[in-house]
Structure prediction request, 223 residues.
Amino acid sequence: MGKTPVTNRIRVLRAEHGDISQGDLAARIGMTRQTVAAIEKGKYAPSLEAAFRIAAVFGVPFSDVFQYDPDADAAFLKLQKNAVKKDG
Amino acid sequence: MSFREISSWIVLAATVWVFGCYALALRKAENFGAGTTGMMLGTIIGFVVIVVVAHVIVAIFAARTGDEAADERDRRIYLRSDELAGYVLGAWSFAALAVALFKGYYLIANILFLGLAASEIAKNAYQVFLYRRSA
Prediction:
């Protein structure tokens, strides 16, 4: 699974919340430590439920944890290009 | 490395080793039609024993990782790898069907032919069910 266009601040938030380990965070959201590590590195985009659970653990809004950069989303850019072509 | 990833390594290594030995035995016999039911059963039993023993050893020495339940990433990885396995199995089945037809083994050919149809029926029926359920 390659890089996703979704970035996150999980590492920073873990540090800000008493240095929660990846394993502790994983246990709180029902995931493995390896999956949390993959999310942190941007190699895996979690489901919406899992993403909300992560935000809930830190007690912050979703957008404080995850950010989406449409310019880094090649599939989205292609769709926009095709839509523009279709519209004339 | 998670227990599930270690498990994948174990099964990969055991499959290459055990079934590789089986394939080498066929090559040695210079006949792809060689082999017996006993030889095949022995291979399967040997494979299962190696995989189980290796998993038990890993579970003993990495007790902490063994507790992890599969999460959504694991399930996505399984789905993608199962998809690839499906392509390989499908291609292999068509090859076996072609050989059976060429050799005139119509019982085997019909079993394979209807088996391929059964798998398509199961796949599409499940897809319809999931679409209806808005999965």
Q: What stands out?
A: The two ends of chain A are 35 Å apart (CA to CA).
